[in-house]
What does this fold into?
Amino acid sequence: MKLLWLGEWIETPGYEVPADGVLVGVTATVPLFTLKNASGRQQRRPGRKVAVFLYTDGPRITFRKARTKREEPRFTGDFRVTLVLGDALDSGRRVVALASRVPSCAHQFVVHRDLVLDVPASFSEDDLRAAAARLIAETETLTRLCRQGYLYSATRPPAELVELLTDAVTATGTPAQGAAPGVLRPPALPAPPAANGRAADTVLPLTPLPPVVASLPVAVLGGGDYTRSEIIPALRRGHFQLYAVANREPQIAAIVGRDYGFALATTDSERAIAELPAPGLVVVATAHDSHTQLACAAVKAGHRVFLEKPPTVTPDDVQQLAATMRANPGAIEIGFNRRYHPLVGRARARLARESGPTSISCVVKELTFQPDHWYFWPNQGTRITGNLCHWIDLAVFLIDGSPMPVSTTLSPRLPGTEPGSDEERVLTVTFEDGSLLTVLGTTRGDDIRGVQEQMDIRRGNATITIDDLWKYRVRSDGIERYGRTLFRDKAHTAMYREGLGRIKAGQPAVYPVRDMVVVSAIQIAASDLARSDERAAAIPDWISLAAEETA
It folds into this structure.
């Protein structure tokens, strides 16, 4: 399949069609407008940020992140809201579709079924241009409603958007205001086998780099900026064979695949798992709701798995992942990077010299996202699951004796915010031995240094503070001792070095099943509180899974 991206027709894999999607073979399109800041992240003063990061994080990490940000427009800088004329490939019927967050033109598009309208065979390109002109007059409304495609978020397009499309397409007798927009047509396809009457293959073969001798083949599921800045460089350092990359956006899959020398690119993560020679390694870095399903499918196919956080989103995920990890001991490593930080290791060793319950307080300066960012989709488990899980996991790692959590509380949502909002909330967890965890997630304060964190950890006669995973202080018996690392570091490099090293050496993963269940139980209970507006909840009964025998 070819699509038009940044003014160039590029060869990509075809779209994988989700349950609510309709695959449309394109006759013509009218791009209505470009979506600005399609990544959904709010950033300011990038030059100042680079200068500050050079001081806090050092040149290696700073240049790697800056390069990734500089290249981001290649991957997300040409998403449009596009009106499409074509044929629904599942039925052959003539349709007009409103496709959001797509390129300006392609051989095929996948569109939410609520935004696909049947039209008569006589519906022409002139009719398409007239409908597009009516929609362009509603650009302000479309900008508000069309920043996602409604294909992956478990939400349907709002009635206002469906009505807007219907009125624009059916009001054929009403003249459009302003200049008629231009029409784009996909290039002619080769002879019948590749005609628009069938779906394009979701796998695109590429020219791979020569494999490293005896290297383990790897499939990377998810091609976002974290994959490009952290995962792929780690795999290259470990001399893995980059075999398959998957991303639901075809242009992202194709560009990442070509840039980094993968053998194939696909929009279907399950196809990537199936195509990967076994035994191989599957790195799961997709949207959170797919993590468990893909990790379990990869293990079933005979592969090792490196599963990025959060490992689970729902109670069913926990049941499934726990069963898979127990049936396949050591097959799944879970990527909570802060466990690998040297200052965290130092704090854990110091706490081991004390006795009694532990009190941990964390203040986390979170990134600011636009309200339509995928982190806020209802099927992603709130930002408590997507981000604050880091500090829940850290507490489980640091508290001595592995006590079970018994309850969690969440402060009320801010006045004027929507139900389910997890902005500016305080999470508190009580453990059966009297240990306590408090986490404040806030977007307030200076944002130039990105995510920032301050931790206060107390047990017995020791008080330990870790400032932004950079500076360390322990106080005991009136004596203070200080330490620090040269630069601030989130320990991604150390995590991948150790985790991938174990996989390459054929050694088992070390992340415990019990910790996965406990961390999941806390984050799911807290996310449920955010959605329900309740204040407190007991940890769910299914946490008893953690007490079962583990490998």
Notes: The domain at 342-491+511-547 is CATH 3.30.360.10 (Dihydrodipicolinate Reductase; domain 2).
